[in-house]
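ok so i was messing around last nite and threw this chain in just to see what happens. nothing serious, just curious
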Amino acid sequence: MLEELQRLYMTTSRLAENINEATTTDLERLVFQRQVVVNKINNSNGLTEQEKEIAAQLKQFDEIIVGRMEQLKNEAAQGLKKIRISQLQKNSYNAAYTVGSSFFDSKK
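result:
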């Protein structure tokens, strides 16, 4: 368990150092790795003092990582909003009409 926590700490600290370059894939991998360790902790008889210390140190990165996740979520939401707006604009220009129909201008 100690080795897994140490690997998780190294991975997390490296990601935190370059958090602005972290992609959603990087964050997904980290979350998966953390979940594996949490599952093993839940199935174990408890943690040693050294393992508890590493786990506590891991918590210091949570705010940084969650902040980056929020930033990526907001970027994705803005992208989706732009797509929806462009679809609405496109739909307004592509008015429904019957093929072969005629339009009569009634200006005088």
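not much to say yet. Helices lie at 2-17, 24-43, 49-59, 62-93.
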